[in-house]
Amino acid sequence: MKVKALILALIFPFYFNAQTVNTHPEVSDTFSSYQDDESVSPYEWQWLKDGIWTGTGIGLSALGLSIIKKKDDLPENEIPSFKDPVLLQEKIDNLNFLDRWVAGKHSEKASSLSDIPFALSFAAPLALLFDDDINDHTGKYVGLYIESLATTAAIYTLSAGLIDRSRPYVYDNSGDTDDDRRFLNNGQRSFYSGHVAATATATFFAAKVYTDFHPNVQGKVFIWAGAATLPAAVGILRMEAGQHFLTDVLLGYVLGASTGILVPELHKKKNKNVDLYPTSGTGFNGDSYNGMAFRYTF
């Protein structure tokens, strides 16, 4: 990758005679090879801090899942109001205007279709490992990705486990959705959309990291547009499926995208544009030198 660089403080030369330099050519070759083959990561990873962060996220996710499994069904005293057409319409009318139009949607086909872009989104960041610059830092990159997903999973599972909100299909009194499905505990997990949150985390993480590694890449608008489109598609399908209301989708989108962007941003090196490295070569007067170079990339 071509990098525009300004050598601000060029060389602190330590001169050797030609015979000495020729005796140890591997020193120059090693430094040159290292600079050519190893890309510079814009991120830093601290095993202790990030290990605690990721471990806590995974632990809280497990706790959230256990709470979800023990979630109560729709209370018995509320079931009659969901079966009575008049009382049900009153419930729908009391919903906010953003969510009212989603109540009663129940497409199982849309639910199945939503799993496709949801699953594809997880592969998007992994596909970036085919990029040579990112692949040079696979461990750090995968660690950041897992940390991002663990953060999203923790926030979502705890919210879904602790907050009761009926899904839109619970409002379906057409007979297409049987009562067992409508009134079991899974129907009380509308808040908020985990599918959208996880998808947004993955796609925005991929866009963020790629543009950080390649700040001068052409077509950034298309990269970010792609990142924004996939979770939006998942959100539309989840609403058609009657799994979530619009506000559930919007919240999942914002929280997921924020995590996908902020986790890498919080790991960026403070002086990522500054590089200090060993170098060697031949000066204008023909003398050979070894030294240190200070480079600022812009």
UniProtKB/TrEMBL annotation:
It comes from the Bacteria. The keyword Protein transport does not apply. InterPro entries: PAP2/HPO (IPR000326), PAP2/HPO_sf (IPR036938). Pfam families: PAP2. Gene3D superfamilies: Phosphatidic acid phosphatase type 2/haloperoxidase. Residues 145-264 form the Phosphatidic acid phosphatase type 2/haloperoxidase domain. Residues 1-18 form the signal peptide. The keyword Glycoprotein does not apply. Keywords: Signal. This is Phosphatase PAP2 family protein.
